[in-house]
Amino acid sequence: MSKEAYPDTCSVHLQKMEGSTVIDIAGEIDMASAPLIAKALDKAVHEEGADVVLNARELFYIDSSGIQILVSAGRKLSDEGRRLFVVGCHGIFYKLVQLMRLDREFCLYPDIKDALLALNPDSRPGRECSSG
To answer: Taking the model in full, what pTM does it have?
Structure first.
C-alpha cells in the first residue's frame, strides 16, 4: 500500500492482509515521529469495516505521545465495533502495556499469523484477545 519514514527514527508501512489493514512500524515513536503513526492509524480507522493489525515487532521505543495515539485509535475502532490488534509487543512498549493495562484497549498477539487467525471467527471458535 504505502510506506513513509521519518528520517532516522521511524518508518511505517500499510498493507492489506486477509481483509484487514496491517501497519508495520519500525524504529521509534516519539513526539517528533508520532504524526507519522497518527496519519497511518487515521487512514486505517477511516477504512470501512476492517480491523487493524499493528505490527510492533520492530518498534524499539514509544513515548506517551505514541501511546495516546494508539489508545485513541483503538477506542475509535471499538466505537465502530472494530478492533486494534497489536502484534510483536516487546521491550519498553510491552512494559508500558502491562503497567498501563492497555491490553484492555487493544488485543495482543505474538505475531501477525495469530492475529489474522483471531480475526477469522471460523478459524478459532471462542478465541478472544490474549495478553501476551
So the answer is: 0.84
- The pLDDT tens digits for 66-106 are 999 999 999 999 999 999 999 999 998 999 999 999 988 88
Q: What is the 3-state secondary structure (H, E, C) of 53-100?
A: EEEEEEEEEECHHHHHHHHHHHHHHHHCCCCEEEECCCHHHHHHHHHH
Q: Which three cell numbers stand for residue 64?
A: 506517551
Distance (Å) of CA 126 to CA 21, 98, 119: 23, 24, 11
Q: Are 22 and 55 in contact (CB under 8 A)?
A: yes
Domains, in order of start, for the chain: 2-119 (3.30.750.24)
- State the virtual CA torsion across 83, 61, 111, 82 in degrees, nearest 10: 0
The DSSP H or E segment spanning 42 is: helix 34-45
Residue in 125, 6, 126, 111 with CA at minimum distance from that of residue 61:
6
Please report the pLDDT score of residue 132 as a whole number.
Answer: 44
d(CA 40, CA 45): 9
| Nearest by Cα to 129 from 107, 103, 105 | 107
